[in-house]
Amino acid sequence: MPAIEVEGLKKNYGELQAVDGISFSVEKGEVFSLLGPNGAGKTTTIEILEGLRQKGGGTTTVLDMDPWSKGYDLHKRIGVIPQGFKFLDYPTPREAIVYYGVLFGKKVDPDELLRRVILEDAANIWFQHLSGGQKQKLGMALSLVNDPEVVFLDEPTTGLDPQARRAVWEVIRKLKTEGRTVMLTTHYLEEAEELADRVAIMDHGKIVAMGTTEEIESKYGSGQRMIVKSKGDLLKYLKENTKLEVEGEGGSVTIILRDKADAFVALGAIQESGVDWGDLTIRRDSLEDVFLKLVGEEGRSEKEGA
Fold it and tell me: Is the pLDDT reported for residue 304 higher than 70?
């Protein structure tokens, strides 16, 4: 039985269709990431699965329970970090953990939990004096007080500096090694590549791609490309003397490599051209390249509740 199952999920706010018939499942022990621009429907989806919003249609189960009708029972078995986690100003992380333990009726060792999220050095610092990364790690500690089977992380590293972000990544990796299921939403494509077993890209309430990052890059990417720096007539020479697919922009020539043989043909033609050239690299589309191709680069405003 998957940890999370979603079939035909819908949710609208008036005329806005925030979630439009999406389906996916998340296996136990898997890190599954929802990606998408602002307003794509990620947070609405997460909040429905957490039992915080009622769905408009379709079916959803988390740990074989309906999140809305069985929310009381479900919340004992899941952990949640909402966007922009906040807490009272004056409790320390140790005090906050003890407080949450009382709320859940759990006996918890705050020092052990602080070690798990790499926050033991800040155990006695007031929340208002913690750094952004420390606050997020406390949020993760509090989400683990009830020893959850599924943890929902809604953009847990937004606004953090690179060092703090990577510290949170280590905590998420630990959750996976402990066998917990993690549902992660993020705006950072490299974060999904680093942490997720599978990803789903949402846009306008629909899932437009889903799979491992390798599967998505292979299916929706442009394949491998050879990029050559050249200020001469290399582009013209390759177009006139080879059958390679080539394009040029800003002093560089890009050659599409449909198979391995194209690389040898390209290298031979570059040498025969007699044109001066510089750096040469071979790359394939990254998850970010595919993401921009699928959802577009236009800016999107944040939509309330989406």
Answer: no
